[in-house]
Amino acid sequence: MKQKTIQITGEPIGEGQERICYRHPDDPGKIIKLQKGSSNKQTRRELELYRRLARRKATDYSQLPRYYGKVTTNLGEGFVTDLIVDYDGEVSNSLYWYFERGYPVEEFYPYLDELKQYLLANQVVFSEDLRRTNVLFQRLSPDRAQLVVIDGLGNHSAINWFDVFRSVSDSKINRRWQRFMRQLKIHSDEMIAAGGVSPRPLAAAYRRTG
Q1: Which element (helix H / strand E) includes 97?
Q2: What are phi and psi of 192, to 5 degrees?
Q3: Contact 26, 8 (CB under 8 A)
Q4: What is the pTM assigned to this prediction?
Q5: Residues 26-73: pLDDT tens digits?
Q6: Separation of alpha carbons 140 and 9, rounded Å
Q7: Alpha helices in the chain (DSSP H)
Q8: Domain 5-82 maps to which CATH number in 3.30.200.20, 3.30.465.10, 3.40.50.2020, 3.40.50.150?
């Protein structure tokens, strides 16, 4: 049976180096990711990670969008994942969005530590391309929030079958996490300085000390 072609007519809601994202026209709780050019490295890495997670059957997807398969659209082939939204229905904002508005990375340290523990517990290896735009601050309720990784997932290494061993994946996650945290600190400081604003605290309800 021929797969239905999904008609995308709206504006994109996000765009990276290799992919562009649209809200699913038939399911507003999901997004469709499409290739922008000839490179599909990110997509291959991401789908391989999702295949590995699916084989485990016990993965916690609380801080990771679920994957729902490939689709055909009028703009080409894409794949479907969850759209990450806040409790009020608004699309969750990235760490970049918060840095840009004067919220320093230190405000997110407890959430970042929680995210790191989640990645280790679920053996979710991410690439060295993980950026501040790939991590969203999802407000779950008026007083609860978490960070969700939406892109930069998967392993870019040429040889990655060793990742099935927890000691190897843990080492890789820890090593890349240290680099990611250094980058976040640099970007946060630079963006606040460039904006000429005093560092702002998160709303009291979301401030955490650990």
Answers
A1: helix 95-100
A2: -70, -40
A3: no
A4: 0.90
A5: 999 999 999 887 767 888 888 888 988 888 877 899 999 999 999 999
A6: 30
A7: 41-56, 95-100, 109-122, 166-195
A8: 3.30.200.20
